Amino acid sequence: MSITKKIVLYKKMKNLVYNITFGGVGGQGILKASEICSWAAMYDGFHVKKSEVHGMAQRGGSVESHVRFGKQVYSPLIVVGGADYLVCFHVEEHDRLKAFLKPGGKDLIGYLDKARAVIENPRHLNTLLVGVLSASLPVSTGSWLKAIETVFKKKIVEENKGVFLKGREMGQK
Questions:
Q1: For residues 135 and 62, what is the distance between their CA atoms, to the nearest angstrom?
Q2: Ordered strands of the 17-25 beta sheet
Q3: Local confidence pLDDT in tens for the 173 residues of the chain
Q4: Collapsed DSSP state (helix, strand, coil) of residue 140
Q5: pLDDT confidence of residue 140
Q6: How many domains does the chain have?
Q7: ∠ CA(20), CA(26), CA(30), 5° rounding?
Q8: How far apart are the first and last CA of the chain?
Q9: 154-172 and 141-151 helices cross at what angle (nearest 10)?
Q10: Separation between Cα atoms, residue 8 and residue 160, nearest integer Å
Q11: Element containing residue 3 per DSSP (H, E)
Q12: Which residues contact 103 (CB under 8 A, 6 or more apart)?
């Protein structure tokens, strides 16, 4: 059994719940990113809950999504100060959402500029940041790639897998 599988089993047995808050503005792929995360966790055998707040998303308004997964999850909402991870796609939304991050939680805002410098297509920002996030979660690479196959149309799956793997590598450094 690989070390990754051992870690996953150990964390499942401890009944840990992972809490991730995604945020940005309409059109940035926040909901797509949370969907990838949810599918990947489900494929690895976790119980998953997801919640979305759209607001005026079509007009560039705030969008946020909460993903919670673990052995057993009872509510889709993350309380203020309860997020293990904060993934913001827009700097101005970060100020509004940083209250969700718990002390000692991981804030991925530092990767935003790095991500923009690496990607050629701005539509790939969400996939790259999900890749960065994936490096910190006990979900197998295979499940992440399967989630990408589930969420994206067939014609853009391979390019999104490549972007995801680039982000995962970035997150492992």
A1: 26
A2: 47-53, 62-70, 17-25, 83-88, 101-107
A3: 566 665 655 555 456 899 999 998 877 888 999 999 999 999 999 999 999 876 655 566 788 899 999 988 888 888 899 999 999 998 888 998 999 999 999 999 999 999 999 988 989 999 999 999 999 999 999 999 999 999 999 999 999 999 999 999 999 98
A4: coil
A5: 95
A6: 1
A7: 25
A8: 24
A9: 150
A10: 25
A11: helix 3-13
A12: 81
Element spanning 127, H or E: helix 125-134
CATH of residue 37's domain is 3.40.920.10
> Which pLDDT score, from 0 to 100, does residue 88 have?
94
Give the pLDDT of residue 169.
Answer: 95
Rg (CA), the chain: 15
Q: Are 48 and 70 in contact (CB under 8 A)?
A: no
Give burial (CB, 10 Å; 0-12/13-18/19+) of 110. exposed
> What tokens were used for 126?
């969400």
Which residues form the domain of 116? 3-172
The secondary structure of 49-67 as a DSSP string is EEEEE-TTGGGT-EEEEEE
Neighbours of 156 (CB within 10 A): 15
Whether the pTM exceeds 0.85: the reply is yes
* Local structure of residue 78 (DSSP, 8 states): P
